[in-house]
């Protein structure tokens, strides 16, 4: 009996021990999982998250530092040394900016110089800093800066009539990004050879002009002309990609200087659905294009009168100094004759989004402001063809806009000197030659079919046909009519002799055939750049001006290049 009791008791105790052990292991496993989850949550925490959990006194000071607070020490030191910076920098800035002011001096003035220039007693405040890791042998620092200056700047202005005016530049307010580049990095103290500085971005720049002892408005247009000159001088002297280089260690730093890195070829094709700015009739749009907003580097298209869907088909060329940060800006205006032009909208293309050596065809929505895009109003679209060609590009790509591509072998020999070298001796001459490029050839267009055309007849069908037109030569062809079809198939080929392929365009218009006329259904507008570069391609194009519809086309180019002297 005692044996049985002992056995039962042992079994019960053993089972109890096993149950307790299992429960303990499960509890420990659960705690480990919860701990791992908590650690993972802490790992994902930001400084802002930690501030919500603990008051500032419970963690080290380096945790509470935000980007703005990290610069407190810099602003404090800058405030202390600012009187010395003012004295040293004022003469330096005056000396470097004065020649640029003279370069952009308005025609009505005979002289534009500084009679007084000091930066004032209020130091700029840096509100943020970021480090850009782009190259292995340099460090790039960008500082967000805000400056409400009390500078004392007086311009000595003289007109051709002998009138001398002292103009004060006051109430300067500036917000922007200041860039410092420490390059190259070396193994000698202070570990970099030179410092380059530049104004990376102007977010806001305001100032007022006042004639000392008079009113500047008494001379019409003078205030606007001087303000434009000051802004152009700042843009051309210190705004990125322009940079000033300060050598720290002896050496050659010519590679840090501003120099072209590529060419941007831009074809302004057309715009559509532009906002009408005229009460009577339609707007008279023209376009302004630039990479750097300087008068000498800005391009302006011709004005298309009374048209909200203008076709320009104009080609421009821009020199690029920094493909990673620069961008192309297009601004559309309504020409008001003798009055100031009315702004319609603008758009931009970042150069870093372009694939070198490849044509990019883009439609861009026009906006009111490129910086603050709160306005969602539809202002129309602009159509561009873009081609970025880096200098020294060696991948077999040939830029069709260069002069050599348009010359036959015989013409290259004729144009060369006795020693076989090209007679063009300088870059300026080469650029002038580019304007004379003529690419001649035969364009073969196969109109394959159309899809999902809009209904044009009462019976829910249409009798479509396509009219093909070369814009410059006005040569025309048309397909046969396909009755009662919204998805017609033509498979018809047409050949056009093209005299100037780079500056011509193909317009395909779809009509519905009626017994007593025709109804317009939509169109496609194609430049010839792509077919010249690729030789042959097949693609589908959306009909413009139609609710629906596509055209399936096959294009082929057979070149006959020539070179003509103007």
UniProtKB/TrEMBL annotation:
Q: Which SUPFAM superfamilies match?
A: C2 domain (Calcium/lipid-binding domain, CaLB)
Which PROSITE patterns does the protein's record reference?
Answer: C2 (PS50004), SMP (PS51847)
- Keyword annotations for this protein? Calcium, Lipid transport, Lipid-binding, Membrane, Metal-binding, Repeat, Transmembrane, Transmembrane helix, Transport
**How is the protein disposed in the membrane?**
Single-pass membrane protein
Q: Which Gene3D superfamilies match?
A: C2 domain
Q: What is this protein called?
A: Synaptotagmin-4
The cross-references to PANTHER family, in alphabetical order and at most eight, read: EXTENDED SYNAPTOTAGMIN-RELATED, SYNAPTOTAGMIN-5
Give the family per the record: Belongs to the synaptotagmin family.
**GO molecular function term, any single one:** lipid binding
- Function per UniProt: May be involved in membrane trafficking.
Q: Which organism is it from?
A: Hibiscus syriacus
List each copy of the SMP-LTD domain by range.
67-249
Location in or out of the cell: Membrane
Q: What is its main location?
A: membrane
**Annotated Gene Ontology cellular component terms:** endoplasmic reticulum; membrane
Q: Where are the transmembrane segments?
A: 6-22
Q: Where is the C2 domain?
A: 243-364, 423-541
UniProt xrefs under InterPro entries: C2_dom, C2_domain_sf, SMP_LBD, Synaptotagmin_plant, Synaptotagmin_SMP
GO process terms (BP): lipid transport
